[in-house]
Amino acid sequence: QVQLVESGGGLVQPGGSLRLSCAASGSIIRLSTMGWYRQVPGKERDVVATITSGGTTVYADSVKDRFTISRDNAKNTVYLQMASLKPEDTAVYYCNVLFSGAINYWGKGTLVTVSS
What we know:
Blueprint: E1 3-7, E2 10-12, E3 18-25, E4 33-39, E5 46-51, E6 57-59, E7 67-72, E8 77-82, E9 91-99, E10 103-106, E11 110-114
Parallel strand pairs: 2-11
Antiparallel strand pairs: 1-3, 3-8, 4-5, 4-9, 5-6, 7-8, 9-10, 9-11
């Protein structure tokens, strides 16, 4: 059983920063790709960034050079450092674990609101 618990969301002004954390339980975490997705009402859930077990990262074009994904395998935790936040970054952010390229696990999400 894999459980994911996100934290770190909240209200931030445009141009500000936030760090999201996702603590994962389960022995498969170290072998899995982890990532962050986001969703706004009425739209599909979109990938923000992913990181493989070996540390290879991929970012959505909209967040390149502003967001940084990282993971601590010893703590089974993935982070998303967000900087230069824009109102369009407002969304519910979900932590994801992809095991064996086919099995997805999701957290319950954490709301990020970028507004003055």
